[in-house]
């Protein structure tokens, strides 16, 4: 299973989003710190989920990191998040 698939699976299971987009943006970072040959090092995610209602921006980020788990978070160099209800 690719990192993209792992991210999608874990976020769907933990947050039940009505909208989820996971984009591997690694190629646009070629030559920069953290780039890994083959990609899957830099990601953009867009999530719309009721689970975020009443949560601060920091709390939402923590929810995503918890859903991904420490193993996957450690394997990703950069994760850009657009989180809303």
Which series of helices and strands comes N to C?
HEEHHE
Please, how many domains?
Answer: 1
Mean pLDDT equals 91
- What is the correct CATH architecture? 2-Layer Sandwich
The quaternary structure here is single chain
Q: Any idea of the CATH topology?
A: GMP Synthetase, Chain A, domain 3
Name the overall outline.
Answer: elongated
Rg from C-alpha positions? 13 Å
Distance between the termini: 28 Å
CATH class: Alpha Beta
Report the uncertain regions: none
Largest sheet report: 3 strands, mixed
Order of strands in the sheet with most strands? 1-2-3
Give the number of helices: 3
How much beta, percentage-wise? Answer: 15-25%
Name the structural class.
Answer: alpha+beta
Number of strands: 3
Helicity, as a percent range: 25-40%
Name the CATH superfamily classification. Answer: BolA-like
Molecular structure report:
The chain has helices spanning 3-15, 57-68, 70-75; strands spanning 19-24, 42-48, 78-84. With 85 residues, the chain is an alpha+beta fold. The chain has one domain: 2-Layer Sandwich (GMP Synthetase, Chain A, domain 3). It has a three-stranded mixed beta sheet. It is elongated and about 40 Å long. It starts with a helix and ends with a strand.
Give a summary of the structure in a few sentences.
This protein is of the alpha+beta class and 85 residues long. It has three helices and three strands, in the order H-E-E-H-H-E. The protein has one domain: GMP Synthetase, Chain A, domain 3 (2-Layer Sandwich).
